[in-house]
Amino acid sequence: MINRKQEADVTHREVVAVRGDIHGAAAHRWWVYALLGVLFLLMAAFVFGHLIAASIVSAIFFGAALTVGGAFQVVHAFWERGWGGFALSLIVGILYLIGGLWLMANPLATSAALTLFIAAVLLVSGILRLALAYRLWPVGGWMLVLSGVIAILAGLVILAGWPVSGLVVLGILLGLDLLTFGLFWLVLALALREIPA
Q: What range defines the domain where residue 168 resides?
């Protein structure tokens, strides 16, 4: 059984190893990471400026992913025809193909349906966080309450504006993802800049 001191030593060695890798490979190229961060921030700004288009593109991408997955499933079914799950594998692949093609042909309906699903996930997730917060109250349960309330409110706001919210929610989520990823690269670049060469 690993005690706390051994665990702390392992963690310290991992941190030192990561710092060594960063120092050796990336510290002198901090500006590349900064450039990457700026690029992601520019993409986020573009997406926030074109939320409807970004939502439609996201829906088309989701449909394309289902279509490709379905095609691979069908190929796999015929490739492994001798195994017992051929018929089931083929049916699942065909359903994925049909669903993916339909989603790409109807990106607005896809966007609305995905938005409704996201709202439901937020509501259920928020309720579960509130329930979990009660059990974990002594160890920061209030943060779970805050997180749960925010998730529930976000789900209710999306539902209140549905189906119109379906035109922008996916774009907002994509923009937030690009924004946070860009900020990560900028913070990393600034940290690397401080490391002596």
A: 30-194
Where b means 16+ CB within 10 Å and e means fewer, 24-58 reads eeebeebeebbebbeebbebbeebbeebeebbbbb
* Residue 151 to residue 148: CA distance in whole angstroms: 5
Tens-place pLDDT, residues 157-194: 888 888 777 778 878 888 888 888 888 888 888 887 77
104 part of a folded domain? yes
Residue 123 inside a domain? The answer is: yes
- DSSP classification of residue 195: S
Q: How many CB atoms lie within 10 A of CB 169?
A: 25
Question: 33-87 pLDDT, tens per residue?
Answer: 888 889 989 998 998 888 888 888 888 888 888 899 889 888 877 877 666 667 7
Q: How many domains does the chain have?
A: 1
Please tell me whether the overall predicted TM-score, pTM, comes out greater than 0.70 for this model: no
Whether residue 132 lies inside any domain: the answer is yes
How far from 88 is each of 43, 96, 97, CA to CA, in Å? Answer: 41, 12, 14
Asked if the structure places residue 17 within a domain, the reply is: no
Residues 150 and 169: beta-carbon distance below 8 Å: no
